[in-house]
Write a structure and sequence with these properties.
alpha/beta, three-stranded parallel β-sheet, about 55% helix, about 15% strand, globular
Length: about 110
């Protein structure tokens, strides 16, 4: 059975994916899940099934549970179906570098 903190992270993930399905613009092509969320296999599959018909997603996450065998199988299924473009599990340091890079680009656009 999951610890209380784990249960809260799973609940956060479930709620976030519900909001994305309900409210995300159809042009959304990249999602970055940084912290305070985890996804059960069932929740992730439900989200990906509902995302079908939209642009393929690039997903960046710190939650490397998505690299586990059962998750990889699910992710590959939705990559093959054109729902997921790519998925990257990254370290927190890389997330900080992405943030700095994004800020630099947006501040220096004329």
């Amino acid at each position: 059975d999951a610890r209380p903190e784990e249960k809260q992270l799973l609940e956060n993930g479930k709620e976030l994916l519900k909001i994305l399905i309900r409210s995300a613009p159809t042009s959304l092509r990249e999602i970055r899940f940084i912290c305070h969320v985890k996804f059960s296999l069932e929740t992730l599959e439900e989200f990906l099934e509902k995302w079908r018909g939209r642009p393929a997603l690039s997903i960046l996450t710190l939650d490397c549970i998505l690299g586990e065998k059962k998750y990889k199988k699910l992710i590959n299924k939705y990559k093959n179906n054109g729902v997921i473009k790519n998925l990257k599990c990254v370290s927190f340091v890389n997330v900080i570098v992405f943030k700095i890079f994004d800020d630099y680009i947006f501040e220096n656009v004329e």
